Q: What sequence folds into this?
């Protein structure tokens, strides 16, 4: 998969573009992502930190997927 970095005008418009399908993925902080993850509107594919997130134990870290 090829990824292309794009600059958007802030987090809120970026999340709206993600939810609307205009962009396919993004790195997002947990506080912003949580309501969308909990509602099922978004799906986490990896945690960027060194260990898994307690609230989402089934989401592997990026390092675990390498």
A:
């Amino acid at each position: 998969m090829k990824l292309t970095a794009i600059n958007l005008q802030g987090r809120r418009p970026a999340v709206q573009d993600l939810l609307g399908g205009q962009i396919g993925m993004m790195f997002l902080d947990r506080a912003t992502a949580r309501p969308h993850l909990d509602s099922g509107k978004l799906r986490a594919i990896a945690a960027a930190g060194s260990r898994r997130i307690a609230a989402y134990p089934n989401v592997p870290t990026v390092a675990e997927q390498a």
About this structure: The chain has a mean pLDDT of 93. The two ends are 14 Å apart (CA to CA).
